[in-house]
Design a protein that fits this description.
The chain is built from four helices and three strands. It is α+β, with helices and mostly antiparallel strands. It has a single domain, classed as Arc Repressor Mutant, subunit A, CATH 1.10.10. It comes from Marinobacter persicus.
């Protein structure tokens, strides 16, 4: 299931390599406080650009691919 989602996202040419964390929370339909906690605990990869904390989607997808191959 995760592999199908990763493949689908990766095929799209218009998906962003990074996304502002609040937009990411809305995109995956998770409460903002949950994503904020994930970032604070480094459960998901992020990068700071200026004053903004962005979710690194490229790294997140690579991490998910690695986790699925380990199972």
């Amino acid at each position: 299931m995760v592999d199908d989602a990763i493949t689908e996202i990766s095929k799209k040419e218009d998906w962003p390599p990074v996304m502002e964390w609040r937009a990411f929370a809305d995109w995956i339909r998770v409460d903002h406080s949950i994503v904020h906690m994930w970032l604070h605990r480094a459960y998901i990869p992020s990068i700071r650009i200026g004053k903004r904390r962005m979710v690194n989607l490229v790294q997140l997808i690579e991490d998910l691919k690695g986790q699925e191959s380990d199972e």
